[in-house]
Amino acid sequence: MFSTWCQRIFGALLVAGLCGAPVHAGSDSPIDSETLAKNRKANEVCFACHSPAGIAKPPRADLDMSKLADSRVEPEIFNKADHGVMDCRQCHSSKHYGAEYPHGAAGKTETSPCNECHAAKQLRLEPQFNASVHAKVEGVKEKFTCNTCHNVHVNVLALRLKDPAKIVEQDNHGCLACHNSDATFARFAPASDKMPGQKKARPDIDTIHEWLPNTKAHWKAVRCVECHTPEVAAGKMLSHEILNKEKAEKKCLTCHSADSSLKTRLYRHMVKDEQQRLGFTNSVILSNSYVIGATRHPELDRIVIGFIVLTLAGVLGHGAVRFIAALRRRKNGEKQ
Ligand code: HEC
Ligand code: HEC
Ligand code: HEC
Ligand code: HEC
Ligand code: HEC
Ligand code: HEC
Ligand code: HEC
User: Tens digit of pLDDT for each residue in 36-54?
Assistant: First the structure.
């Protein structure tokens, strides 16, 4: 409550940071329509250059166009994003950024860090972030920050996106933009232990996961973090601890079963909705992932049934071998 009123009062003065954690998107709007209109108006100054329209038709002739092309922000996307209610200069210091150009030289180094406004969240997430693989490898951890995965101009809270396909696209984009791009990966990669003076080569993401049928279909339907983070209590946001590859999830039935772990992860917002509306949740899981027995996918059924048959055969086979061995031993014992 305090932070809502605090923001209402100070919003126009661009000091939301003083107000502590902002209220959640999805609750009533944190900002009144007057402040919102004022912020949108102020941002027009920036969009005159930093937008597709501005890049196509720059208001001045002396701009470094290649740099400007790299710094485009899409007004429609920004306005709908989590931070779209804000004035750009709540994060980009008004000391360096304004209608006048060139920008102040120190501007780049003075972008507000997340914890200026999300102190409580950062405090909770930081231990997980620090325990994750990216924060452990020398040469990687120094460069990894919250922005490495989060695009504050674009991202929309999962709770508001709801549609699993959109959530997957947003969250996997954060990982794939690096793990699927040699250029970006090279900027973050540690030194190679095989080739002195070179960066470690990027392992191809589809080759690493070739045990997973149709990886491309999985990247569209399920998030990297589903398999690469530990399970958290139902209803909680997922963990920021990216585990090492030995601890990653490989079991098909973790997702492809009626008791799918996706219920408490990717589908949690839909599940909650359905539970409130109907009192049960099965349709979410049935309509979004293949469940053995109830599936529409003969290939998956065959693979999964194959696994079960193999496991059973393994158990029975193992038992039979031990039984025969025991019989032999007993016979030998009797002879002596
Ligand atoms: C007249 C055109 C123009 C306007 C208006 C403008 N910018 Fe820029 N901005 C640029 C160009 C060109 C660059 C590329 C780097 C450079 O030349 O400084 C840039 C770079 C940036 C960068 C990248 C970091 C840096 O300093 O290089 C940020 C952040 C930025 N602008 C924010 C803003 C904000 C916020 C506003 C509105 C308050 C704004 N800009 C208004 C042209 C403009
Ligand atoms: C919630 C904070 C926040 C808001 C609001 C915000 N930005 Fe940014 N902006 C950032 C961060 C963080 C970066 C990345 C800086 C980095 O990587 O060092 C960034 C980077 C940029 C860059 C550099 C190029 C790029 O895309 O990485 C430009 C240009 C820019 N912002 C313009 C804007 C404009 C224009 C607005 C308003 C329409 C805006 N920003 C609103 C936080 C914000
Ligand atoms: C200057 C203040 C400021 C900074 C810096 C800032 N945010 Fe925010 N952020 C906000 C405000 C205000 C909202 C709430 C918008 C709303 O509720 O409609 C918000 C909303 C969010 C949300 C969605 C709603 C929620 O409460 O979880 C996420 C996620 C988020 N920010 C992440 C980040 C990350 C990651 C960074 C750093 C890269 C960052 N923010 C930097 C002010 C800021
Ligand atoms: C390795 C990539 C990565 C890094 C680094 C990262 N995050 Fe995240 N973050 C994610 C993903 C993926 C999600 C989506 C979780 C979900 O929807 O359940 C997320 C979700 C969030 C959310 C909640 C949004 C929601 O939908 O509920 C907040 C807040 C947040 N991150 C803040 C931070 C902060 C602060 C940092 C820096 C300490 C950070 N993140 C660093 C990947 C990352
Ligand atoms: C279905 C579960 C699953 C999904 C989804 C998944 N992974 Fe993996 N990933 C694994 C497992 C299991 C391993 C370990 C494989 C092995 O050692 O054979 C692994 C290995 C990795 C490695 C280690 C590479 C190496 O050998 O150095 C990286 C990097 C990785 N995954 C990134 C990703 C990214 C990025 C995504 C999202 C596009 C993703 N993973 C999605 C299960 C998954
Ligand atoms: C900006 C680049 C970048 C982003 C974004 C990124 N990673 Fe990584 N990741 C790396 C680098 C660099 C390594 C270290 C490679 C190494 O040491 O072999 C790594 C290592 C890994 C590993 C391998 C750990 C091991 O045991 O070898 C996994 C798994 C992984 N990342 C998953 C993810 C997931 C999931 C996301 C998104 C939530 C993500 N990464 C986002 C750059 C990135
Ligand atoms: C982290 C959760 C998860 C894990 C683990 C997982 N899957 Fe999937 N899989 C999905 C989701 C979600 C879909 C998409 C379902 C849809 O689109 O209806 C999918 C789709 C598939 C498909 C259909 C792909 C296509 O061609 O359209 C097959 C086959 C499949 N999975 C097999 C497997 C096998 C075999 C394993 C174990 C090696 C496995 N999956 C592990 C979540 C998972």
Answer: 999 999 999 999 999 999 9
